[in-house]
From TrEMBL:
Source organism phylogeny: Bacteria, Candidatus Woeseibacteriota
Species of the source: Candidatus Woesebacteria bacterium RIFCSPLOWO2_01_FULL_44_14
Name used for this protein in its record: N-acetyltransferase domain-containing protein
Stretches for region Disordered: 1-30
Length: 357
C-alpha cells in the first residue's frame, strides 16, 4: 500500500511531471505508467471514426493487460456534440469526461473535447474515496463566482504582491530559481524539474511574494494544437500550484490562479496568446482537495462532472479521470488521485474579468 500524504489544500502539484498536456497522436507512453495522446487528425463527425478510436483503446487495453508497467491509457478527441450524444452508449467503459467548446471560436461551437481512457484492474479508485470526491465536487458546484477585483484586493491588503514572472527573469535570475526550487522541493521536485518548467517559453508563471520572496506560485501551460482538418485549438492548463506551508489558508491559491487567468485574458484580447486568442482554460482538479475545488469554482470555472449531469450522460461519461496522477499534498490510500476537469471558455473568461475588474 502506498504511503498516505497529508492534505495541503493550497497545493496541487503532480509529483515531478513537468509536461501536463502531453503527446498528440498516436498515443505514446507517458509519465506515471500511462499511455497518453490527443487525436489531432480532426474533429470526429461520424460513427466510423469514433469506432476506430474505440478500437484503438480496446487494443491498448489488451496490450496493457500484458504489460507489467503500463496500467492506464488517457486520450482526448474533438467530437461533434450531436455525435457524442447519439453515440454515448458506445462509450461505456471508455468515457471519462467532456469539456464543451461552445463559447470559444465559431468553428467549434458545436464541438467538445472528450476524454476517453481505461485503467487496468490493479489501478482502480478506492470506492469510498471516489464517492467523497464526487461529493466534494458537487458541494463546490453550489459556490458562486467571486469578484476578480475583490480576490486581488484581499491579497494585496495582507501585504502580498502579485505578478507575472516574465520569461527572461525566470530563466536568468538565480534568486527565482532558488525560491521556486525551495517552494516545490517538498513535493519531490528537484532543481532540474523546476528549471525544466521555467524554461518552457509557452508556460506562464504567476507568483505571490512577501517582502520580495516568492511564497506561492502557479503555472499555466499553453499549447496550440493544429489539426489536420485545419482547426486550431489554443488551450491553457492551470497546474503546478504551490504555497509555502506558513502562508496557506490566506487565499493565495485563488489569487495566483486569478492572476494567471487575467494574464491569459490580456494576451488573448491582444491576440498575442500563441499568435491568437485562447479557446479554453482548464485544470484537472484533485477531488480530494475541497479547498481547491471551491477556489476553482469561485474563479468561474465549470466542472465536467456538472456538464455530464446536465446532459444526462454521467453513466457513461462521469466527469472524472480515475487514478490519473499522484497529487502531492493530498491524503489518499491509493497510489494516484482521481481528477475532475474544470474549465472556462474564451467568452466566459472575458466576462469573469471584465465584469469584476
Amino acid at each position: 500500500m502506498s504511503k498516505e500524504i497529508s492534505e495541503q489544500p493550497d497545493n496541487c502539484v503532480p509529483e515531478a511531471d513537468t509536461d501536463s498536456i502531453g503527446p498528440t497522436w498516436p498515443p505514446k507512453e507517458s509519465s506515471f505508467n500511462r499511455i497518453k495522446g490527443i487525436d489531432t487528425r480532426g474533429v470526429i463527425t461520424d460513427t466510423r471514426r469514433l469506432s476506430e478510436i474505440l478500437t484503438v483503446l480496446q487494443d491498448l487495453r489488451q496490450a496493457c493487460l500484458k504489460d507489467e508497467k503500463l496500467d492506464r491509457a488517457s486520450v482526448r478527441i474533438l467530437i461533434e456534440n450531436n455525435l457524442l450524444l447519439k453515440s454515448s452508449d458506445t462509450l461505456q467503459g471508455f468515457g471519462e469526461a467532456v469539456i464543451p467548446l461552445s463559447g470559444s471560436q465559431d468553428e467549434l461551437q458545436e464541438t467538445s473535447l472528450l476524454y476517453l481512457g481505461f485503467n487496468c484492474p490493479k489501478r482502480q479508485p478506492n470506492p469510498e474515496e471516489l464517492r467523497q470526491s464526487i461529493t466534494n465536487v458537487q458541494h463546490a458546484m453550489r459556490r458562486d463566482t467571486a469578484s476578480f477585483k475583490q480576490i486581488r484586493a484581499r491579497t494585496l491588503e495582507q501585504g502580498y504582491q502579485l505578478g507575472i514572472s516574465d520569461f527572461g527573469e525566470r530563466v536568468n535570475d538565480e534568486q527565482v530559481w532558488s525560491e521556486m526550487t525551495s517552494l516545490y522541493k517538498r513535493f519531490g521536485w528537484n532543481s532540474e524539474d523546476v528549471l525544466d518548467i521555467l524554461r518552457k517559453e509557452n508556460n506562464i508563471l504567476a507568483v505571490a511574494s512577501l517582502n520580495g520572496q516568492i511564497v506561492s506560485a502557479g503555472i499555466a501551460e499553453t499549447v496550440l494544437l493544429t489539426f489536420e482538418d485545419g482547426v486550431q485549438l489554443r488551450m491553457a492548463e492551470i497546474t503546478e500550484a504551490a504555497t509555502r506551508e506558513e502562508h496557506q489558508g490566506r487565499g493565495l491559491y485563488t489569487a495566483v490562479a486569478s492572476e494567471l487567468m487575467f494574464e491569459l485574458y490580456k494576451k488573448s484580447a491582444e491576440k498575442q496568446l500563441l499568435d491568437g486568442q485562447i479557446d479554453l482554460v482548464f485544470g484537472e482538479c484533485n477531488g480530494n482537495a475541497p479547498g481547491v475545488l471551491k477556489a476553482v469554482r469561485s474563479l468561474g470555472r465549470s466542472f465536467s462532472h456538472e456538464y455530464s449531469l446536465t446532459m444526462g450522460i454521467e453513466r457513461v461519461v462521469p466527469g472524472f479521470l480515475p487514478q490519473h496522477v499522484p497529487i502531492a499534498g493530498a491524503k489518499r490510500s491509493t497510489p494516484y488521485n482521481d481528477l475532475f476537469p474544470a474549465y472556462i471558455n474564451r467568452q466566459s473568461l472575458a466576462k469573469f474579468i471584465e465584469e469584476n475588474r
